[in-house]
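Lab notebook: predicted structure, single chain.

Context: the supervisor wants predicted structures on file for every construct in the current expression panel, including those that have not yet been purified. This is the next one on the list. No modifications to the sequence; it matches the entry in the shared construct table.
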Amino acid sequence: MRIISGIYKGRKIVAPSKLPVRPTTDMAKEALFNILNNQYYFDDISVLDLFSGTGNISYEFASRGTEQITAVDDHFGCVKFINTTAEAFEMPITTIKSDVFKFLENNNQQYSIIFADPPYDFEVELFSKIPQLIFENNLLQEEGLLIIEHSKHTDLSHLEHYSHSKKYGGNMFSFFEWN
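Prediction complete. Output recorded below exactly as produced.
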């Protein structure tokens, strides 16, 4: 995986092969950040990266100047890898090893952008729990955006606070916001 833009543009990050991850493709990541670049000043926002895996999305935000990034994953190896990488690049990423759903139930901080990249084989009920907990617990700022990455075969358009989706190859991003 590589960092697409910002101060670390072009840097390659090689994750250990034993991590149970599926990093966002460069094509999909570039398209997503082109959308976000038109809506946000990256140095003025706070980001929550759920199911953060290798930290791919967190690194991209950090490279673009975001100072408040929290990455949550329940896999010790993923959290350790993100910590090591963030330290090596001096990136402001705080990691939390936790079950994402428990974190969402117990957290009370608000974020400008919440990005979730759960396993593609999640049942729709588990996907639906993500926006449900985020909006019920008021974790998204008023002008904030929740983005869930999922397979093009998963339809989340029926969920509350759904706004729209964008498809890139086999990847899909569904966007949720306060109505």
